[in-house]
Amino acid sequence: MTLQIENLGHSTFTVKIGSLEVLTDPFLTECAGGIKRAVPAAKRPEEVTPKVVIVSHAHYDHLDLKTVKRLKGKPVYLTPENCKKVIKREEVIELKNFESVEIEGVRFWKVPAHHNRGRNLLHPDTGVGGFVIEHGGVTVYFAGDTAFSEHLYSSIGEKFKIDVAMLPIGGFFPVFRKFHQTPEEAVKGFKILKARRLVPIHFGSWHLIPLFLRLERALERLMACSLTSGITDRVTVIQPGERVTFDI
Fold this sequence. Notes:
This protein is α/β, with parallel strands linked by helices.
């Protein structure tokens, strides 16, 4: 089966699987929470027409309401608990851990993540998570934002046979290790998952402290660790604006 993944910047990707175009963590405008992007989004919201939008959590750089308002059509939003009140759309399905829903033959599972809850003082209880997407014998894991946890990756790897693991590698400098994993931890998590291919996300486009995008050297560290871990041929880096097709 053919799977197509496009990087639009930060954690916003499109995943074309089956009959669906899925948009992850919608953020396609100039800034989030008042902080500008270091790299412009690869597309404007009006240029993306997803049938499904998956939201890992309600932080401003993963759920940008300006982007939501400008998306074409009426996509279905899949989210952790307590996010519908932020999105304010009828087409929102909130899922608990390991709950699932099927849309046009594609099944979406909400899975756990280790990240801080809440959006702001008005919405402190919005949930967090990742998603596993299954169709035609192909399984994609979108981790969203997460810190490293051996138990987390083990629990997902035991339940699902992951073909493509989309794992975050940036945002850990200077004091954010509690909520974000390092590139080395992403490689470790990938090996625990026993996934076939690693696609890094959450790098190079936006940071709560923009200076640290350069200092983290996220991609450089990922590739160095991949080399020493013997998995270089299983890592696919998709730069912002690029699209890759996988035959699985």
